[in-house]
TrEMBL record:
One annotated GO molecular function: hydrolase activity
Protein name: N-formylglutamate amidohydrolase
Keywords recorded for this protein, A-Z: Hydrolase
Transmembrane segment boundaries: none
Gene3D superfamilies for the chain: Zn-dependent exopeptidases (3.40.630.40)
Native source species: Acetobacter tropicalis
The keyword Hydrolase is assigned to this record: yes
Length: 275
């Protein structure tokens, strides 16, 4: 961690954003909405057991280790949300029905019931908005300097949902601009992996917030990567996936530049970005 502090909550609480890695001049900016599972002290334990808070409902298991190792290998900046998505989901627009969940995968979240507008606004102002402002700040600085910039959103998914086993080892999510996702998908498949194409989730305008806000609206090349949690719930798996992505992301970007006529040192042509 760079030691940078973004104080969203009051001084007694951990800052809501953790920034890892150093910018070595490459195109990638890594963001991780569900990497953390802290709960502000004023919310206690949310009324949820420690065991449940440690489940996937609290955070994206394993993605913290992958993201931090990947940031180091790519010499890229990683911006992580520190607080649990049970407090507020930073991949949802403010006011979205699942922004602050009352029940998650069968587990009630008592601290999220009967919230006033002020209480909701407080969580947005102290956690959601400062996190996205930090991402915006990073992207603004790069674009001002005329640097190529690729937004990479990192997530993990459960091996099973609703009693069904999910066959994919990794999923790439896309919506309005699938160019980089398709190129990375082909590279992952060449490694013999089962790769979900908009699986286990599809990226949409409403169910997501980070890629639509920082990738699509800004017409920046982007990809959302979901890794199955049993593959990265241990350090060796995290290292393996970080090494794989550190190898393949630059290859995908080089192919992107060739295919779409982008000079690697210049920003992608905005015209084609929403194709
Ligand atoms: Zn996630």
């Amino acid at each position: 961690m760079t030691g940078e502090v973004v104080t969203g909550t009051n001084a007694k609480e951990p800052p809501c954003v953790a920034v890892y890695g150093t910018d070595g001049g490459g195109p990638f900016v890594l963001v991780s909405d569900h990497a953390g599972r802290a709960v502000p002290s004023y919310l206690g334990d949310l009324g949820v057991s420690a065991e449940d808070r440690a489940r996937h409902i609290g955070w994206d298991i394993g993605i913290d280790g992958v993201g931090r190792a990947l940031a180091q290998k790519l010499q890229a900046v990683l911006i992580e949300q520190v607080y649990s998505r049970l407090v507020i989901d930073c991949n949802r627009a403010p006011g979205h029905p699942t922004s602050i969940v009352k029940i998650s995968d069968g587990t009630p979240v008592p601290a999220n019931h009967a919230l006033t507008a002020e209480q909701i606004a407080y969580r947005e102002d102290t956690i959601l908005h400062p996190y996205h402002a930090r991402i915006t700040q990073e992207l603004d600085a790069r674009l001002k300097a005329g640097r190529p910039t690729v937004v990479v959103a990192l997530h993990s998914f459960t091996p099973e949902m609703g009693g069904l086993k999910r066959p994919w080892q990794v999923g790439l999510l896309h919506n309005h601009d699938k160019r980089l996702a398709v190129l990375l998908m082909e590279l992952l498949r060449k490694e013999g992996l089962s790769v979900g194409d908009n699986e286990p989730y599809a990226l949409t305008d409403t169910s997501d917030y980070t890629v639509p806000t920082h990738g699509e609206k800004r017409q920046l090349p982007h990809v959302e990567i979901e890794i199955r949690q049993d593959l990265i719930d241990h350090p060796a798996g995290q290292e393996e996936w970080a090494a794989r992505l550190a190898r393949l992301l630059p290859q995908a970007w080089a192919l992107f530049c060739q295919t779409y006529g982008v000079t690697p040192g210049a920003q992608a042509d905005a015209e084609g970005a929403m194709a």
